[in-house]
């Protein structure tokens, strides 16, 4: 499989997409104590009037029912005129280690 040309619907069927989507409909709260000391939780509105900034938005991971794949939406927002976003798809290997299987870009500016 050429990972550069694969579509998400080649990995997930409609039932799996619905299962993933339902997980994103739930709201969670995260405490900063769960994060590395190099990561801070911020409000993107705090950057509205700044010219030089960069932050990342990362969704809650959503898992397929069989536990083989994990889907994470991400955005990289930098300055006022650049950024990008898409999905990371992770696959759990035989040893139970999650490895990035696919990066699917959805937008870039």
Beta-strand percentage? 35-45%
Which sequence of SSEs, written as H and E, runs from N to C?
HEEEEE
Shape: globular
**First-to-last CA distance:** 28 Å
Can you give the mean pLDDT?
80
Structural class: mainly beta
Percent helix among the residues? 10-25%
Based on DSSP secondary structure assignment, what is the total number of beta strands?
5
What is the radius of gyration computed over CA atoms, rounded to a whole number of angstroms? 16 Å
Number of separate helices: 1
Major sheet attributes: 5 strands, antiparallel
Uncertain segments are: none
Report on this model:
The protein is mainly β and 109 residues long. Helices cover 10% and strands 36% of the residues. It has 1 helix and 5 strands; from the N terminus they run H-E-E-E-E-E. The protein has one helix spanning 14-24; strands at 54-58, 62-63, 69-78, 82-92, 98-108. Strands 1, 2, 3, 4 and 5 form a 5-stranded antiparallel sheet that branches. Strand 4 and strand 5 form a beta hairpin. The radius of gyration is 16 Å and the shape is globular. The model has no long low-confidence stretch (mean pLDDT 80).
Write the layout of secondary structure elements.
Blueprint: H1 14-24, E1 54-58, E2 62-63, E3 69-78, E4 82-92, E5 98-108
Antiparallel strand pairs: 1-3, 2-3, 3-4, 4-5
Main features:
single chain; 109 residues; mainly beta; 5-stranded antiparallel beta sheet; 10% helix; 36% strand
Brief digest:
This protein is mostly beta strands and 109 residues long. The protein has one helix spanning 14-24, and strands spanning 54-58, 62-63, 69-78, 82-92, 98-108.
């Amino acid at each position: 499989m050429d990972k550069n040309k694969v579509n998400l619907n080649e990995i997930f069927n409609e039932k799996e997409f619905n299962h993933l989507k339902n997980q994103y409909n739930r709201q969670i709260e995260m405490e900063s104590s769960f994060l590395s000391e190099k990561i801070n939780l911020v409000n993107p509105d705090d950057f509205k009037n700044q010219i030089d900034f960069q932050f990342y938005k990362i969704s809650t991971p959503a898992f397929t029912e069989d536990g083989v794949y994990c889907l994470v939406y991400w955005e990289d927002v930098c300055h006022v005129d650049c950024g990008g976003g898409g999905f990371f798809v992770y696959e759990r290997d035989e040893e139970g280690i999650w490895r990035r299987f696919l990066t699917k870009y959805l937008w870039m500016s």
